[in-house]
Amino acid sequence: MVKAVIDPSVLASDLSDLAAECKRMVESGADWCHMDVMDGNFVPNITFGPPVLACVNKAVPELYMDIHAMVANPKQWVPDVAKAGAKSYTFHYEATDSPADVIASIKEHGMKAGIAISPETPSSAITEEIGNSVDLLLVMTVRPGFGGQKFMPECLEKVADLRKRFPSKNIQVDGGIGAGNACQCAQAGSNVLVAGTAIFGSKDPKATIHEMRSSVDGEIAKWE
Q1: pTM across the whole model
Q2: Which of 68, 54, 2, 58 is nearest to 30 (CA)?
Q3: What HEC string does 196-224 produce?
Q4: Active site residues
Q5: Domain CATH number, residue 88
Q6: Which residues contribute to the annotated binding site for substrate?
């Protein structure tokens, strides 16, 4: 079964309704809320940090906050993000020389661990040791740090490779995902699809989420 994940970071310019929008999207059928934490170092943009996450968690305690840490020192952020109520924490392979240490810290703080690779990073960078130690593998289908970019279909070759090597793992795709390419992502092996602009820009988010889910469930059933 596909997990429909919404990314409210497209609302970063107006955080006043963030919690309400997260709640609305979950009620529309989203499974997780994918929160992009950017520090202005690993990527040039800055979004929000643990204080905002804690406010969202307080307002919507049932929310599954899936943190995507686009930060230069991912281990440093782990304790505060966990305290803020995050359920999972995904960091970038490119941001650390010691992914095992970051993964261990994430798990010690009671969160699911994920690792992301940017478009320029080959899937071979995810070794058997790394892949088997995390709960989720994230393949970026745009360059990290900016919303509204065009989907990069060539990145799906990495999804296929990771699915072959780690058949039981959640494999997430993030960047330019919508109803038009959701099935393509599932065919490659992704079962966790992140959509931001496609959902928040929709006049009927519930229908859009349903359309995406329906288009990929059959493909996922072929390899689950």
Answers
A1: 0.92
A2: 2
A3: CHHHHCCCCHHHHHHHHHHHHHHHHHHHC
A4: 36, 174
A5: 3.20.20.70
A6: 9, 68, 145-148, 176, 196-197
Phi, psi at residue 74, to the nearest 5°?
-60, -35
Q: In terms of residue numbers, what domain contains 154? A: 3-223
Q: Each residue's pLDDT tens digit in the chain (224 positions)?
A: 455 565 666 555 455 578 888 888 889 988 899 999 999 999 998 888 999 999 999 999 999 999 999 999 999 999 999 999 999 999 999 999 999 999 999 999 999 999 999 999 999 999 999 999 999 999 999 998 776 678 999 999 999 999 999 999 999 999 999 888 999 999 999 999 998 878 888 889 899 888 888 878 878 777 66
Q: How many domains does the chain have?
A: 1
